[in-house]
Design a protein that fits this description.
Elements lengths: L2 H40 L8 H29 L3 H17 L10 H6 L10 H27 L2 H20 L14 H5 L2 H44 L11 H12 L15 H18 L7 H18 L3 H6 L7 H27 L2 H6 L4 H4 L7 H40 L6 H21 L1
Helix pairs in contact: 1-5, 1-8, 2-3, 2-5, 5-6, 6-8, 8-13, 9-11, 10-11, 13-16
Length: about 450
């Protein structure tokens, strides 16, 4: 097997591994998302998952539109001088012509609704229907956004899915339809971790974490894969290009032309340091060819000869640098698969551990109060386990991490500025004529006192 085929196979294998890593992350995120959605659905009372309640909620919002329409029309008719009975009769006739009846979508007569617009329907509990409507809508939005992320790897869609699932749990809790206990008074971190609410919440968060990691991998690997496909196909077409028989150049002319083309780059029979410049030269030459072909197309140009010269140029570069295809596709600049897996795994485990610890400290503030040497009257009080005390503990923790992030960001900016100044100081800038004249004048002035002293 030649070096060219071996290197090409290694590059193809690396691209395949990168694509497999991205697909595995997507599949894992999809499995976590499906498990989280299943736990959310099973944690809510079955009475919520009733299509009649959903449909009743839809009709209620149509009823609100009808109410607004009737009140505005009644006010306009009353202002035009129809009087109270006349305005009601006008709205009844208009409603009948538009909606096909004198009753609203919820069965309330128009006359009763106009005279008493604040009355609510009594057919069933309207608040349960409204909660069920918003819970189902939020769940549908979460599912659509979740599967949309799996298709496009857009982190905004995963964030929408994450917040929609949390809204579902919050609405169910407000309507007393949540089947999960919200009591964490046991004080044990193991009991908190293995509680159903925490498992559900952490599955949802874990899906968000994996989705962000998948988006990172997609942004790092995706352009590389597309670039590899595009450049590899172009190189393959260039290698298989053949001159038409009628227009094939003579061997002597071709050799002379190839020597003129590559004379500035290499010397025949010698592998010198000039071969290091071949990648840069290849980039500039190919860019020039493509630019000329795309933007300066002329009927007089012979593209077959140009492609043939480019093919010969590429083959001569490939003889001294078998990895030229890898350099052109920039596959070597992509981080390794092992490094990506290590970064994703360690970062996810660290953030999950910190989140579990902070959640336990926020839900059980007594250890922190004891560590801060608070009086026993505060530690043993009933308010120590209340949400207000939890917020008093959680707020300083969030501020501390915010300050740490700001300090790290400030240090990074200072280091970046210093490195930029150092790198700028090492750059050799061209000397203008004015600067050269100033230097010469300074040298002359220094020499004149020395001559006078002599």
């Amino acid at each position: 097997m030649s070096d060219e085929a071996y290197n090409t196979r290694l590059e193809e294998k690396r691209v395949r591994r990168m694509r497999n890593l991205l697909n595995m992350n997507r599949i894992f995120a999809a499995a976590i998302f499906i498990a989280g959605v299943g736990l959310v659905i099973s944690s809510i009372d079955r009475s919520v998952w009733n299509f009649q309640s959903f449909w009743y909620g839809v009709k209620f919002f149509v009823f609100l539109f009808e109410l607004l329409f009737l009140l505005i029309g009644y006010g306009i008719a009353y202002a035009l001088g129809y009087g109270d009975p006349g305005a009601v009769a006008v709205m009844v006739s208009i409603h009948t012509a538009i909606f096909g009846g004198s009753d609203t979508v919820l069965g309330i007569p128009i006359e009763e609704l106009i005279t008493n617009p604040l009355q609510l329907p009594q057919q069933q509990n309207i608040w349960d229907a409204i909660y069920a409507f918003f819970i189902m809508i939020s769940l549908i939005v979460a599912i659509i956004a979740g599967f949309g992320f799996l298709r496009d790897c857009n982190p905004a869609l995963s964030a929408v899915s994450f917040f929609a699932l949390n809204i579902v749990i919050g609405l169910a809790s407000l309507n007393n339809k949540l089947l999960i206990s919200l009591d964490f008074s046991s004080g044990s971190i193991t009991s908190m971790i293995f509680s159903r609410l925490v498992i559900t919440a952490f599955l949802i968060y874990f899906y968000l974490e994996l989705s962000f990691q998948a988006s990172y991998i997609y942004n790092v690997i995706g352009p590389n894969i597309q670039r590899h496909k595009r450049i590899s196909s172009n190189i393959r077409r260039l290698k298989t290009f053949k001159m038409p028989i009628a227009e094939a150049p003579k061997p002597a002319e071709e050799d002379e032309e190839s020597e003129e083309t590559t004379g500035k780059i290499m010397v025949k029979g010698k592998n010198t340091s000039a071969s290091r410049l071949k990648v840069t030269t290849a980039f500039s030459r190919i860019r020039g060819m493509v630019g000329k072909k795309l933007f300066k197309i002329s009927a007089e140009e012979d593209w077959d000869k140009m492609n043939n010269r480019l093919k010969g140029f590429y083959e001569q570069i490939e003889e001294n640098d078998p990895l030229i295809s890898v350099s052109l596709s920039a596959s070597a600049n992509t981080p390794s698969i092992t490094r990506l897996i290590l970064i994703i795994t360690t970062g996810t485990i660290f953030r999950m551990a910190i989140l579990i610890l902070l959640s336990w400290l926020a839900l059980n503030p007594i250890p922190i109060l004891t560590f801060l040497n608070m009086p026993d009257s505060i530690i043993a009080s009933a308010e120590a386990g209340q949400p207000e005390m939890i917020m008093l503990v959680l707020a300083p923790l969030s501020v501390v991490f915010l300050l740490i992030g700001l300090i790290v960001q400030f240090i990074q900016r200072r280091i970046t500025k210093r490195m930029g100044k150092v790198s700028q100081g090492r750059v050799i800038h061209p000397i203008t004529k004015e600067k050269e004249e100033k230097r010469r004048r300074g040298r002359r002035r220094r020499r004149e006192p020395q001559r006078d002293s002599q």
